Amino acid sequence: ISTSRNWAVWLHEYLEEMPGKQDVLRYVLTANAPEAKDNDFTWKDFQTRNNNELVAVLGNFVNRTLVLTQKYFNGLCPEAGSLTDYDRSTLEAMTGIRKRVEQSLDAFRIREALNEAMGLARLGNKYLAETEPWKVIKTDPDRVATILHVSLQLTANLAGLLDPFLPHTMDKLREYMNINKLPWSEIGSVMLVPASHPLNKPGLLFEKIEDSQVEYQVNKLLATRKANEAKEAGLPAAKPEISYDDFSAMDIRIATILEAELVPKTQKLVKMKVDTGLDQRTIVSGIAEHFDPKDLPGKQVTLLANLQPRKIKGIESKGMILLAEDNEGRLIFVSPDKPTANGSIVK
How far from 347 is each of 2, 168, 241, 253, 281, CA to CA, in Å? Predict the structure, then answer.
């Protein structure tokens, strides 16, 4: 990592580009955190831990438990019948997990504590996989009532055990379960959810991270590295040759900025209204760190006018204003040296 060279994953960019996934980052950083040296972070590991642990283990167990309770018992916690040895051993294991999490937290072994807490989700997944309530319901609904009663106790305990690590997600889980935040002293109890307790309609706690999302982040880092290498060499790296036809296809014109304002809730984006000579259109550009929007109206600029429109922060941007960037990262408008009619073509 090198913050001075922008070789980093910036938190504000992560929160903008991965909305609602703040707990995923907390989880990955905690799961990887060594006790006595810097943390390592890769986007591939981020994807793997999200998909294979948060989605496939924790999310899968919680979703199965809540959805099956909605389906078979109208969203009410069923009453437990006679417990089998397996039921009892599962509940006893849950109590042991709570003690180990507490011991690890007391010793500031945070990564170890998270792994122990996730052990309860693994235990629940194993319990459902082996008891198969979706099959047993056909022959023994009373047994399914006990299975889901036990599973709901595990789920409620997860909402407490994982709260230090995944606070936003556990708020959602408590909402789905219609329960309040638990004092730590009650975690480990086998009676957190009483019979007939009503649940709310569940949703998914986590979503899969797709390859395309990881590829975008990796390419962004690679682009930063290439830019750093070019700066160290003193000049930007040359781009591959294009044909004359490719160049001719670009409609580059002179335009004048009429209005400019910072896009709300962003630090870099400026929304501009420009006169192209052919029309007036909106352009969004990440230049707020280099120019004060109040100084831009009246400025003549060079515009790539036929760039395919795209939405940026919900605003359709139709074109791109061309700027030069020096070796220190400063941006300069590419402008005519004297007033020129809007719409004039740059050849």
Answer: 40, 54, 18, 9, 22
* Burial class of residue 231 (count of CB atoms within 10 Å of its CB; 0-12, 13-18, 19+): middle
Same domain, 253 and 138: no
67 and 138 together in one domain? yes
- Give pTM, 2 decimals: 0.64
Query: Are 14 and 147 members of one domain?
Result: yes
* Total domains in the fold of the chain: 2
| Domain with 297 in it | 240-333
Nearest in space to 195 (alpha carbons), one of 133, 153, 135: 153
> In this structure, what token pair is assigned to residue 152?
């709901």
Per-residue confidence in pLDDT tens, the chain, 347 aa: 555 555 578 888 888 888 999 999 999 999 988 765 566 788 999 999 999 999 999 999 999 999 999 999 999 999 999 999 999 999 999 999 999 999 999 999 999 999 999 999 999 999 999 999 999 999 999 999 999 999 999 999 999 999 999 999 999 999 999 999 999 999 999 999 999 999 999 999 999 999 999 998 888 888 777 766 666 556 666 788 889 988 999 999 999 999 999 999 999 999 999 999 999 999 999 999 999 999 999 999 999 999 999 999 999 999 999 999 887 788 999 999 999 999 999 98
